Amino acid sequence: MVLNKNKNQLLRGIVFKHLFSIALIWSTLPALISAATSATQVLTLTVPISASISVSSGAVTIPILSLSSGAGSATDSSSTYTATSTADMGTLRITGQIDTAMPTNSTLSANLAAKVGTSSGTTLLSTTAANLVTAIDGSTGFTDANRAITLTFAVSPGYASGASLTRTVTYTITN
Question: Are 119 and 94 in a shared domain?
Fold first, then answer.
């Protein structure tokens, strides 16, 4: 009888341990299943505001036809630009810069006419961006279309004439 009693206690202990293990697994099962089948993530989504600038003519030739005492200049106004913005970008400006520095005793200048914003007038171009149009109100979007670009190539005494130059002007609309 003592043996049966010990056997019953032993069986109850084993059953209790198994029931406890099953209950523990059962209670954590929803968390395990939930963690395995779903997750959350916080995203910050942005849509870029569109602003663009385009130029009507890709290539322009500006020949200096005559020099007076080694100095001279030539101007071209055959190109236009169009600048647009589709949404609030605050106050904008248009800058211009050339890809390679001008040789000694020569300059290249640009003057962009503007209906929206303020033209900086005739501005020397270099490899550093220079403001050509400032104070553009981009708070509601805008279009400034077919505005004149005037480019001036000038040389002063001491310029090594005879060589042809090629420069790329990059116009950028920016804050």
Answer: yes
